[in-house]
Amino acid sequence: MFLEKLKNNLKDKKILILGFGKEGIDTFLALRKLFPKKKIDIADRLEFKDFDKKAKEIFRKNKNLKSYLGKNYLNFLKKYEFIIKAPGVNLKKIKPFLNTRTKITSQTEIFFDYCPGKIIGVTGTKGKGTTCSLIYQILKKTIPNTYLVGNIGNPVFQKLLKSEKDDIFVYELSSHQLQSLKKSPHIAVFLNLYPDHLDYYKSLNEYYKSKESIFKYQTREDYLIFNPKLRDIVRNAKAKKIAIKDINVRRIKKDLPKNINLMNLEASILVAKILKIPEKEIKKAIKYFKFLNHRLEFVGNYKNIKFYNDSFATIPEATIFAMDTLKDVKTLILGGSKKGKIDFSNLAKKISKSKIENLIFFPLTGKDIWRIIQISFKVNKKKLPKHFFVDSMSKAVNIAYQNTKKGSVCLLSPACASFTTFKNYKERGNLFKKYVKNYGKKS
Questions:
Q1: Which of 14, 15, 187, 316 sits CB 3.0–4.6 Å from 347 for a disulfide?
Q2: CA–CA separation, 397 vs 431, rounded Å?
Q3: Cβ(107)–Cβ(23) under 8 Å?
Q4: What is the value of pTM for the model shown?
Q5: Within the chain, how many helices (H) and strands (E) appear?
Q6: pLDDT of the chain along its 443 residues, tens only?
Q7: Among 379, 390, 313, which residue's Cα sits nearest to residue 348?
């Protein structure tokens, strides 16, 4: 029924897919299944040579595919009245290129409009990927038709074509995906809210507003699980509100991974309880939970030093989050590229009250962070830790091995984006793991 409705809605529209990354490819393949002969056009800032193998293969198999690629790709948007936009395409940048009749939508918006199953949506500045993964692990054993989708790297359009009313979708929702939604999930999880993406949004308030769709369109039949610090933000929500409180974890404490964050854990358990998952299944899933790469990822114990890769920590609050979760951090690796105006003062206070002995800094922000840390230590009348400025991961890890106390923790949690020294947070984290293992094997 929903497929017929979707097909009828799209059949007469001239469609442009804007952004041909992983999600754009999934959108194209889904539309091709719905409409084997329909003309579907593509626009992307990349040139053909820069696409991955899968995208190039689609171009090769679809000889009549009309595409607008490269630096002038936005100049052709006025021709279209229906554009399916990828999350990373900045809405404010494309608006001048649209005509007044253009309808901008997204894969997420289409999914929410037509999905026959239940959606569990998770958002927050940090922790949403881990929480989604944990919810999925808990539900999957009891409810096999549970799927992990969304910002976590699993596009949804092709899954939508096969979905049924008993399916459950655990959907990681970024601010970009939430921005234009006019529907909210049946169960919403709102973990936290910190300044971020200020290179994308006009203001901090616009970023905060983009998150509101997680609960804005919920009804009294829905559920909102939220961080108590967000009580003022969610006060007008109509759903059944459940604050994430300190739950009794003593019964499962021995099964908890040491680097798990209790906020993520508690939110996941609350979702499981709403769906009546047996406690033994919850405990089992938590015990065997495998953390996502680059999120408080335990790299290993080398030369009696425990190394953790938290390269995904691209804002100061995420680094504070990591320090609160891990105990006995003696070496902290910080710094990276600038992403709007970043306030490091709370992180500096946290470090000044910690037992950290070594700080290792990357450019461009390393010297700025160190200056703010010095002020904080002076206020607290504490002796400054050792500090080092480096321009490569190899040097950072080598210094960490030479200076970190045996039996303690070395944590990569940069509090900044990666784009000066590294291609992205994944490359940064992977290089950290590589050199930790390489140096760890040397005598």
A1: 316
A2: 10
A3: yes
A4: 0.83
A5: 16, 17
A6: 788 999 999 988 899 999 999 999 999 999 999 999 888 999 999 999 999 999 999 999 987 789 999 999 999 999 898 999 998 888 888 989 998 888 999 999 999 999 999 999 999 888 889 899 999 999 999 999 999 999 888 999 999 999 999 999 999 998 889 988 999 999 999 998 876 555 555 566 677 777 899 999 999 999 999 999 899 899 999 999 999 985 555 555 555 666 667 788 899 999 999 999 998 999 888 888 877 889 889 999 999 999 999 999 998 988 998 998 888 999 999 999 977 678 899 999 999 999 999 999 999 999 999 999 999 998 877 889 999 999 999 999 999 999 999 999 999 999 998 888 999 999 999 999 999 999 998 75
A7: 379
d(C-alpha 109, C-alpha 179), whole Å? 10
Q: Please report how the helices 279-287 and 262-274 are oriented relative to each other, as an axis angle in degrees rounded to 10.
A: 150
Rounded to whole angstroms, how far apart are CA atoms 414 and 313?
Answer: 6
Beta strands at 305-309 and 297-302: parallel, antiparallel or unpaired: antiparallel
Domain with CATH 3.40.50.720 in the chain: 2-109
Angle at 6 between CA 144 and CA 151, to 5 degrees: 50
How far are the Cα atoms of 76, 79, 135, 206, 361 from residue 96, in angstroms, in the given order? 11, 13, 40, 19, 40
CATH 3.40.1190.10 occupies which residues in the chain?
Answer: 115-287
> What tokens does 108 get?
């997420």
- The matching CATH number, chosen from 2.60.40.1120, 3.90.190.20, 3.30.230.10, 3.60.15.10, for 297-441 is 3.90.190.20
CB atoms within 10 A of CB 87: 20
335 burial via Cβ count (<10 Å: 0-12, 13-18, 19+) = buried
- Residue 384 is given by DSSP the state P
Token pair recorded at residue 102? 């253009």
Q: What is the dihedral of CA 275, 293, 89, 216, to 10 degrees?
A: 20
Hey, what amino acid is at 327? K
**Are the CB atoms for 300 and 292 separated by under 8 Å?**
no
Eight-class DSSP state of 97: G
Q: Name the superfamily (CATH) of residues 2-109.
A: NAD(P)-binding Rossmann-like Domain (3.40.50.720)
Assess contact for 393 and 428: CB atoms under 8 A. Answer: yes
